[in-house]
User: Fold this.
Amino acid sequence: QVQLVESGGGSVQAGGSLRLSCAASGYSSDIRYMAWFRQAPGKEREAVATINTSAGRTYYADSVKGRFTISQDNTNNAVYLQLNSLKPEDTAMYYCAANTWGAYPLSVGSYGYWGQGTQVTVSS
Assistant:
């Protein structure tokens, strides 16, 4: 079992920044990918950014490239998402997720462990 706890969400004005944190515990050595997903009301959950925990390779959704940065701290079993130049369309619940399967890192179904979510609200 892997437990994930997120923190760092909040309300900001457009153009502002936030930093989301996710602490992993349990069988964290089994994790192959960590990711941040988001889900806005009435929309499907989508991958925002992923990171391969061993190689450090990252992926970003086109909508956040150049504005968001995913990083990891393997010593502390944590992953972060730096959100810069926020836009109102970034408003959503953001979820941290862990993939122990090692495949399809962009797919919601590939992640067996999820945090409780943290709300990000961007006002214009």
